[in-house]
Every structure is written in structure tokens, then in C-alpha cells.
Amino acid sequence: MTETSWETKKYLSSRLLLVYAVAASVGLSVALVGVAKLALFVFCLAILIWPHVTNSKLSNETCLKLPLNTARAVLGVLLVFTLSLFWTTAGTAESVGSIAKYGKLLTILLLPMLLRSKQEVVSAIIVFVLVQFFLVLSSWMLFAGLPVPWAISKSSTIYFAVFSSYLDQGIMSAVTAAVCWHLRKSAPGRFGSQIAIGIAVLCLANVLFVLSGRTGHLVMIVLLSLALTWQLKPRYRWTVLIMPLLLLGTLSVMSPKVQKRLNLVKSEVQEFSIKQSANVVTGSSSGIRLHFWHRAVQSISESPLLGSGVGSWSNEYNRLETRQNPASFRIGERGNPHQEYLLWGVQLGIPGVLLLLTFLAAVFRDTVGTDPDSTRAAQSVLAALVVTCFFNSPIYDALIGDFFCVALGLMLALVMHTQIAASAARANPT
Question: Which pTM does this prediction carry?
Fold first, then answer.
């Protein structure tokens, strides 16, 4: 074996193993995700400079294949947040740390860069799905009262989440269900399609009947609505506008979990309205969110053009809260208002909200391909992110943010390589 061929083989094996490690890490502990993500960034930096250091022939293999619209948007987002360091009200550690949090968006670009064929993408998605399926099976075991020694979540025996919170796991399982359903035809093996459908059903039932996360319920309802609508003829697809309401009404009757959480939202909102008039902050989940959103809107209204800079949310909340009540509780650094759109608005003003929408639109453009299955899988992941951003800060948060970045990276790589394979098949019909 020549030196060049040995280097090529070593590069290929380490490249795929790293992708598999990143795909498997999301959903597990935050520490594992951090290690895998760091290794991914270092490896990609190394292969970018490899030809310049060694004059190796690997340069042809490492040429960049990126979803271009998403690449421009991600780089633009990171540039704008970096520029906001000049006017941020946050301290250096908090502002730089926040930029590092947004650095996870690079994962969306690095995974397609490392995956060289549709077969490699499919194998990485299989690893991704199997780990998520492991989480769902573990959740079902917890629900059945069986021992799950690897469950490290503090409330695993109460809310049946394994490594993360029930909120994160519900969202991840909903996305996994959609991916399995839309890509069932690509599952390998004689019974691959049936296995994919089975995983999708188990994930769906786990989210709607076992887990308590309201955002997970809503994400699953939206993704289920999209899946049902896509099965209809084009002239009936307008029903996507009413499908979520129909499903929500049905599930509120059929699922005790969904019914309980809906009633809880109603009571928490009513409690917030009563206590706000008395200038008292309610401690409920919905009440805290509504209070945070109110403060975020106040901050945006005071700095609508530039915002308060990257990492400034905690400072802005504490400033506004102290102005209202000097003895009020102060939140810690690197918090968030549990709403991604408002978080970007606080940091970058109204242009920040538009920047986030531009990023989401760029990803959507790259999800559009010639193959409906890969397109629908990618757009389902994007739809889940859009919905989650209304009730949490998934891009800013650890774990769930990494999950979405990895899932989007894999889906965009699938769309891209499916198009490449289709083009090659048309060019060489024999």
C-alpha cells in the first residue's frame, strides 16, 4: 500500500467515525456532546489546512460541498453577533460565551462537508436514529417501572426522561418519529421500512402518552399534521392550516397527558394575569415564560435598532426588573427568555429577529430537493425548530440546540447528495 493510499484510508475511517460519534452524542450527556463537537471542529480545521501542510492528494477529496444558502446565513449570523461585541451591555465572559454557544450552528455546515455520498449520509442517519430509539425504549422502560441504571436525569422516575429533561426528550423523539416516517423507504434491509415505521409509532406514542413536555406535544402535533397533509393530493393540502387544531382537539380527549398539560397551561395563564395586575411574579412555567417575554419586549422597545448586544439578556432582565422592584430576584448569567425570536431581538433589536427569520428561510431553501422523502424529512426537522423557538431558545441552549444542528446537518446532506446521485443517474442511464 502506498503512503498516499494509506493516508486516504485513514482519513476516510476517521472521518466517518467522527461523524457517527457526533450523530450518536446528541441526546446523551452534555459532556459527550461537547467532546464530540470539539473533535468535529478540530478535525474539520485540520482537513482544511491539510493540503497546504502536506501537499497531499487528499485535497480533491476534501473539497467543500455545502448547502450554500445555509452556509451564507450561518456565517452572517456569527459575524453580526461578533460585531455586537462593540455595543453589548454584557460582560466579556458572558458575551464571548454567548458567541461560543451560537458557534454550534457551524455543525450544520461541517457534517455535509464530511459526508461524501448518499450511502454515507444514510449510515450516519441510522446511527442518529438508533441512539434516539435507545432513549425512547429507555423511556418506555421507566414508564413500565423497569430498572434503567443509565438514566441520569434527576426526574427520570417521575417524567421518564433518560439523560435530559422531559422537554428536550419530547422534542427529540418527535423529530425522530418524523425522520423515520419520511425516510422509511431508504431504510436498509428486507424489513427496514417496517422497522422505521415501528420506531416512528413508538416515538409518537411516547411523546403523546408518556412524556409531559408541552412543547414536545405541540411539535409532534405539527409534524404529524405535516405528514398527514403531505399524503393528500396537492389541492387538499390547504388543510395543513386546520390539521393541527383537529389533532389537538382529538388528542386532548384521547391522551390524558395532553389533556392535563393543556389544562395546566390554561390555569397558569389565568394565574399570571391575576398576579401581574398585583405586580407579583408567578412561579409557574407558563407564568415565568410570559413574564420573561414581557421584559424582552420592553428591552426591544428601548433598543429597537441595535439591541443590547450579544449575551445581554440577563443584564437587560435584571435591569428592568430592578427598576420595577429593587428587591426582586436576579437571574444568573447566560440565561434566556425561553423564546429564541425575542432573545435575538433583545440582543440585536428588530434586525435580530429578521436575521433569525432569514437564517430559517435560508435553511428552508436548501431543504428543497427533487426527492420528496428527503425534502419532507428535512423540512420536518426545520418545522420542529421553528415551533420550538416560540417557547424555548433551542439554538442558544445546550443539548437541544446541538440536536437540532446535527439533525439539520444530516438532513441537508441527504438532500444534497440525493440530488447529486439523481444527477449522476440521469447523466449515466446505463
Answer: 0.89
Higher pLDDT, 191 or 249: 191
Q: Say how far apart CA 384 and CA 373 lie, in whole Å.
A: 17
Residue identified by cell 445546550 is 398
Percent of the chain with pLDDT over 90: 44
Q: Is the distance from CB of 104 to CB of 401 less than 8 angstroms?
A: yes
Mean pLDDT, residues 171-177: 95
Q: Work out the angle at residue 258's Cα, subtended by the Cα atoms of residues 254 and 264, and round it to the nearest 5 degrees.
A: 135
For 75-127, give the DSSP string.
HHHHHHHHHGGGT--S-HHHHHHHHHHHGGGGHHHHHHHH--SHHHHHHHHHH
Domain chopping of the chain, boundaries: 1-63, 67-114+281-430, 121-274
- Top-confidence range, 50-64, 153-167, 171-185: 171-185
Residue among 49, 98, 48, 94 at smallest CA distance from 78: 98
CA nearest neighbour of 337 among 279, 291, 402, 300: 291
Q: What's the burial of 269, exposed, middle or buried (CB within 10 Å: 0-12/13-18/19+)?
A: middle
Residues 6+ apart with CB under 8 A from 220: 170, 174, 177, 204, 207, 208
